[in-house]
Amino acid sequence: MTILNQKQILLGITGGIAAYKSVELLRLLKKAGANVDVAMTAAALRFVGKTTFEVLSENPVITDLWEDSHGSVAHIDVAARCDAAVIAPATANCIAKLAHGLADDALTTTFLAVTAPILICPAMNTHMYENIRVQRNLDILEQDGVHILDPDTGTLACKTTGPGRLPDPWVIVDRIVHMLTAQDFAGRQVLVSAGPTLEPIDPVRFLSNHSSGKMGYAVARAAEMRGASVTLVTGPVNVTPPVGVNTVFVQTCNDMAEAMLAHMDAADIIIQVAAVADFRPDQQKNLKIKKTSDQDGMTLTLVQNPDILKTMGDCKRPDQFLVGFAAETHDLAASAVKKIEKKHLDMIAANRVGGEDTGFQTDTNKLSVFLKDGSQTDIPLMDKQAVAHSLLDIILAQLERRR
Ligand code: C5P
Predict the structure, then answer these.
(1) Fewest beta carbons less than 10 Å away: which of 34, 186, 292, 331?
(2) For a pocket test of ligand 1, which of 209, 272, 340, 347 has the largest count of ligand atoms closer than 8 A to its C-beta?
(3) Residues known to be catalytic
(4) How far is CA 230 from the centre of its chain?
(5) Do the Cβ atoms of 82 and 112 come closer than 8 Å?
(6) Residue 252, pLDDT score
(7) What are the pLDDT digits (tens) for 2-38?
(8) Which residues share a beta bridge with 364?
(9) Structural domain boundaries enclosing 104
(10) Is 225 within 8 Å of 231 (Cβ atoms)?
């Protein structure tokens, strides 16, 4: 269940070609459990019909201030009841009007009455978007506390290439969730690692493991949602990088060590979730190793990789909070506690691998979290995003205690 469940969202749609994407945005908001009121400008109605939004939102759509609203003032009601409001797409015209407090149609009048957080998603021709007057109006809105989602860069409907494209609807939903989430990690720098490492044997073969990266990505996403400035160092995985996170892509353990140590100094909290390969081939062949017909087998010599977590534990400052992960098949508590001591950690999160719904590749997990003093907190089986939030709750409680 997401934070959007049972929330009241006001969706404003203005007249840009990207208005068709607002249909999907509405669908995603509804799927997440939100109740959505829609307000559209006359120009938006030229791109997508009102009926589509009425059917999908299951609410009347506000297009006209003068329509019969059964005795109540509909636009004031929806403005008052929303928990968050978003305009997607937002045209230059609508941005200008909002920046200057103009209210000459149903949408701008409604948004002027909103006291909940507002997200504006500009989408327009690149030259329009880069026009100093549009940028100035966006600055005014930002200074007023309105959230702005920068447009994507790409080829636009007008055939121009540059910034101006409305981001994918899931990104807009992600930013609405961000707006609704308590910013209890604001001002904190979080460094997270995720995924497996990949240790090449020759140009086509490698050693790796089954880590999907889902847990590490969930931790990075949760920290960013709660206001942290997050760097994610990731091995090769098939997961979309979280929005708003500085993501650094690496392959080998040595690459990961270099990236983690380069970002370590700036971090307050370091969470090493990655399933780093303990060994790598002693040498990487430049050419593909060929089999010969008289060959019975082949021997691969492995050398030990650096222990990144231990290296960080050995050099961490007292104000930094270092968290390790331990994937175990047995003796969870005993080996987790041993690792806290050996690697000079503040905390370790142990999970049992090999279960059906925990560990590698799964969307759910459960963790046993151990602190230096030996105390244990169990995070029950949940989806990995919820597990990540519980883990951050424990870290935050520890940091509050240090004050
Ligand atoms: O000792 P073990 O590999 O079980 O410890 C797991 C923890 O150590 C994880 O946080 C993992 O990311 C980290 N680790 C590391 N470098 C390695 C091996 C493991 O940072 N070479």
Answers:
(1) 292
(2) 272
(3) 158
(4) 10
(5) no
(6) 98
(7) 899 999 999 999 999 999 999 999 999 999 999 999 9
(8) 383
(9) 2-180
(10) no
